[in-house]
Write a structure and sequence with these properties.
The protein is α/β, with parallel strands linked by helices. It has 3 domains: 126 residues, N-utilizing Substance Protein B Homolog, Chain A (Orthogonal Bundle), CATH 1.10.940; 34 residues, no CATH class; 190 residues, Rossmann fold (3-Layer(aba) Sandwich). The chain is 46% helix and 16% strand. A 7-stranded mixed beta sheet has the order 7-6-5-8-9-11-10, sandwiched between helices. A 4-stranded antiparallel beta sheet has the order 2-3-1-4, covered by helices on one side. Strand 6, helix 15 and strand 7 form a beta-alpha-beta unit. Helix 1 runs antiparallel to helix 2, helix 3 packs across helix 5 and helix 8 crosses helix 9. The N and C termini lie far apart (65 Å).
């Protein structure tokens, strides 16, 4: 039995049954199953996750049982088979069908005939099935075509024009480039580019992130360059967010929602490991991730601590040159990396997020020295969580003014969707 498809099956079932994070589940099952083509495993796994609503819609055309009542094993095998037949031109049709049947023999308890029948009927009738008519229901058409929960489609339709909405939906299904951040306390970007190129990696410098490199190749994180702390994995947009805090040597910085610590570490490197960064997070167990990475990178100016950032830490009022607020958000800018976000079913939670974001930002403003910077960042493209929060904050806090604002969009910038706004404290006394 094909170990590659088996590893993809185990990963998808882990996500389906245990709500496992896709990246962690994939890493675990690749390590456990030892497939000979990990890239093939990732393609099927992420392909199924990114197109789940569309695949289920197709399946619904060929089965009598409602999707919600189907056995998860059979539904997962059908999704895998259909993904290969529809999206993977490199896979012969007979291989996609036969290997799906082999998996079914082991896991679907006599359902291999059913799996075989559905896939073969699709091959006969594939020219006659597709998303519902766009003119009848725009939201339903886009939801099925690009596999997003309908409320996300409605949210973007209410915020953007039709062309931008569809471009955003399509971009969320693309495979992101692999981006790393050079640790400038140990090596220059030019030197790292040369060393990676010499090891056979295809590399190019990021045009937007001054310490970023885009890499193609296998086992990058197994080599000595990574283990010796020469670089970290971080998307370009996240690097840009840290850079917009303009950290300087000797600064005191507070990162109020810091785990897993990528932006704290990026700022520490820009400070040449001179100064002080207080990296807080409400979840104490996550702080060890920051400490572990700091040791690998040779960074010793970060002090971690557990704190609920909706509350004011009175000991830190007026202490910071820069305060970084990477607020908890809907994550709608990073669906390329976390496709499970597309299927969230609770828009009510989204409505509560701006309130919490404003609470965190308002509390954090108290730590900024006069003349210091307050940076607000999210990995979403929801205007309610971004421009809306900033507008309400400035209305209540007259002692701050905007220095710079940046909205990064996946379909325009070819990186994660991020919102970043830097504000300077101009008065000694805060607002309300």
């Amino acid at each position: 039995m094909d170990r590659n498809r088996m590893s993809a099956y185990y990963t998808l079932m882990d996500i389906e049954n245990n709500l496992a994070y896709s990246n962690l589940a994939l890493k675990h099952h690749i390590r456990r199953g030892k497939p000979d083509a990990p890239a093939f495993v990732r393609e099927i796994t992420y392909g199924v996750l990114k197109n789940k609503i569309y695949l289920d819609y197709i399946i619904g055309n060929f089965v009598k049982t409602p999707i919600a009542k189907m056995r998860k094993s059979e539904l997962t095998i059908l999704r895998m088979g259909l993904y290969q037949l529809i999206f993977m031109n490199s896979v012969p049709e007979y291989a996609a069908v036969n290997e799906s049947v082999e998996i079914a023999k082991r896991f679907s308890n006599g359902g291999e005939g059913f799996i075989n029948g559905v896939l073969r009927q699709f091959l006969r009738d594939k020219d006659y099935v597709g998303p519902p008519d766009r003119n009848e229901n725009e939201t339903q058409h886009l939801s099925i075509k690009y596999s997003y929960a309908p409320w996300i489609v409605e949210l973007w339709r209410s915020s953007y024009d039709a062309e931008t909405t569809e471009a955003l939906l399509a971009a969320g299904n693309m495979t992101p480039e692999f981006s790393i951040r050079v640790n400038q306390t140990k090596i220059t970007r030019e030197d790292l580019l040369e060393r990676l190129n010499a090891k056979g990696f295809e590399v190019r410098a990021s045009a937007r992130a001054s310490q970023g490199i885009l890499v193609k190749g296998s086992n990058l994180l197994e080599g000595r360059l990574y283990k010796n702390g020469m670089f970290s994995v971080q998307d370009e947009s996240s690097q840009i967010a840290a850079a917009m805090a303009a950290p300087q040597e000797g600064d005191t910085i507070i990162d109020v929602c810091s785990a897993p610590g990528g932006k704290s570490l990026a700022m520490a490197e820009r400070m040449n490991n001179r100064g002080k960064i207080y990296a807080w997070d409400i979840y104490h167990r996550k702080l060890s991730l920051i400490e572990q990475e700091a040791r690998r990178l040779g960074i010793d100016i970060i002090e971690t601590g557990s704190w609920d950032s909706t509350r004011i830490n009175s000991a830190m009022v007026n202490r910071a040159d820069r305060v970084f607020v990477d607020a908890p958000c809907s994550g709608l800018g990073v669906v390329r990396r976390k496709p499970e976000i597309k299927y969230k079913e609770n828009p009510g939670e989204l409505a509560e997020l701006p309130k919490k974001q404003l609470e965190i930002l308002t509390a954090s403003a108290n730590y900024v020295k006069p003349g210091g910077l307050l940076v607000y960042s999210t990995c979403t493209i929801s205007k309610q969580e971004n421009q809306g929060v900033i507008k309400r904050f400035l209305r209540r806090n007259r002692g701050f003014e905007i220095v710079d604002t940046l909205q990064l969009l996946p379909h325009v910038d070819n990186m994660d969707g991020f919102f970043i706004c830097s504000m300077r404290r101009t008065e000694n006394v805060l607002g309300e």
